């Protein structure tokens, strides 16, 4: 091949791929809205939404909860990114949550929220979400809407196909996007990809009472890219399905080099079999350093533990754990129908959507209807596992979710639409444009055994002209469609925080029934809690000064402190004495280099302050808590390092009297 031909072929492939992934605007850009759309999304003042939507914040690192059908933003839950609004990742209690083997990482890229499941149904206990960049999985407690645990995932590079719950949350499963060198020697040439790079799929055990996560085992799998996953359910319980691309095993210019082969793979994982091998002692412990951070609701504090090894099963040796099914060009989503029988694989560059049958797959495995091997993994014959193909679905199929009436909804990135098709006949019955370039979509309960249906939410990549412009960066956006009838109907556009990669939604009742309104003061085991004003104090220990402070409508105690010195490290441990729902107090002090505190009723939180100069520093409550909120204030006096001003503190009658600065 002459260099010219080589070059032009490459350029052509680049052009095709670029066109495909910039997406195109639907031709008919004016929105068709049916007459009663406004009524369908109007939630009158004082009324509650029907559904909670939990959307990832993408590169914001957080999760946001919205009410549906109104699209109203209810709460941003800080997860992987520091959040000065409530001190997350800045306070002494929460800093440890962001520790990793790479140090303190105050940001990540969050993609896939996943509600915990019982018998294949959202149960409202926890929400899991992946940190994509520095591989981590977080668990949010849906009683408190707080992140309670963050577990780092070793041997992973880009925690993208993650986290996916099995039918009863036996595991959350995390697959690596990038294969990477694993083991003792990871300092290898990148060109040695084929020899040295491997994938790792982590099966993380979830304690059913507390939710605590632990890596039960990791499967070491061929070195390709693992994109997304879904667990089997019903008939396919015990299995997990991953979409894989880059079966070319390219390590450079993947947009061209990883689009060469006609087919990539879906990987079917028999995790029950893997469990058996673990029981038989066939796992191998591998050294791996990773952080495990847990927030304790009793002490209101997080602790990091460093884990040192991980149990691995090598699929080169234990061959009946995983199988490949060929799948047209660069599959993205792998989604499982409510009954667990159909596995829908969406190839980004494919012209059809293949639907695989779990029954046919297991028959083919039993009969060894294979088409050779790929990196020691048996490849099941495409036709042997295929239930059928959805013909002419649209361009760039990405993700599929299901409703309660036997229909599937697939997002089409390139043709920017949602396509509705019948699961049993695979016939397309409706399509509706999205504005613009839909990525994931979310049907309420759309990955459950019995989906709730009623709405599909499009999570779009581009908004262009849909909102008032805000400079070069435009808002991210979702769109709500009514799917209760035969035709899908657009109801609402609403902006989102960060990029809403994926979202999960469930009926409000599932979440509401578990809500925690306060933290009981009597159960507060924070080592620096002051459970009443008599317990407030200020204690010096060398250069460290600890302030046991309380907050109650409408004063802080102590509110006058003297005897702090330049160069001291001052810790304000503030306990909110309130025991009423919706009465947080805030705390901020002038010149603090970190954050404020936002303290929930019954909670204790700590801010560290290192005053750099002498003087009198005001502090106050930042959350408008009562008519006398603006009176909720105080002073800390800072004297020179060598001053003899004694440590004194109090509030009202007990406030320090007549102290003169001395040199
Ligand atoms: S991916 S747009 Cu990050 Cu979930 Cu499919
Ligand atoms: Cu407490 Cu304002």
TrEMBL record:
PANTHER family: CYTOCHROME C OXIDASE SUBUNIT II (PTHR42838), NITROUS-OXIDE REDUCTASE (PTHR42838:SF2). Its main location: other. Its EC number is 1.7.2.4. GO terms for molecular function: copper ion binding; nitrous-oxide reductase activity. This is Sec-dependent nitrous-oxide reductase. It is found in: Cell envelope. GO terms for cellular component: cell envelope. Residues 1-19 form the signal peptide. InterPro entries: Copper_CuA (IPR001505), Cupredoxin (IPR008972), N2O_reductase_N (IPR011045), Nitrous_oxide_Rdtase_Sec-dep (IPR026468), Nos_propeller (IPR041114), NosZ/Cyto_c_oxidase_sub2 (IPR051403), WD40/YVTN_repeat-like_dom_sf (IPR015943). Keywords: Copper, Metal-binding, Oxidoreductase, Signal.
